[in-house]
Amino acid sequence: MLLSLWPNWWEDWEYQWKCTFIGETKEIIINPGSQYISVKKDLYSAWKEWSSVRDNMKFSPAIRSVGGDPISDGLYAGDIYFLTNDRKVIVKDNVIVDGVLFNDIQGKPPYVVAPGGGVISNVSTNLLQTVVQHTREMSRDLAFIRKQVKQNEFYILAQ
């Protein structure tokens, strides 16, 4: 029986999403072990991928975005995301969230935090984004900086 279902769900395994999307209950569940979530990549883009698989387009849209408009050369309005159609993001573990997420329903929080879970937001302001073209040398520097930031994040969280 299990082998007969496997080919029907191949896309789900292939994408390796950090969230599970449940269309019937309008839930977006952060998968266990996902310690870092990007609203843009792991919620918005993953939902667009999920909705294109099988017949998931039958469900109402889950997330909309605003922003990204060009302001000047290499400078863009920041992205802001909104849960739509009474969706909720369920968080069961502690997770660091990068990005701005609101609920379309005024006053309703976007996250439902289960006991033992928590959301740590990485965003101080998202009004502007700068797009920078970088060289190979800059990539090495960026990798070093990311490693240092990650080490410091875990040090701060442990305190």
How would you describe what is shown here?
This protein is α/β, with parallel strands linked by helices. The chain has one domain (17-132). Helix content is 29%, strand content 30%. It contains four helices and 13 strands. It has helices at 2-5, 10-15, 39-51, 136-158, and strands spanning 19-22, 27-30, 36-38, 63-66, 70-72, 75-77, 80-83, 88-91, 94-98, 101-103, 111-113, 118-121, 128-130. The strands form four sheets. Strands 1-2-8-11 form a four-stranded mixed sheet, with helices on one face. A three-stranded parallel sheet has the order 3-9-12. The longest helix has 23 residues, at 136-158. The radius of gyration is 18 Å and the shape is globular. It starts with a helix and ends with a helix.
Protein traits:
159 residues, 4-stranded mixed beta sheet, 3-stranded parallel beta sheet, 13 strands, disordered C terminus
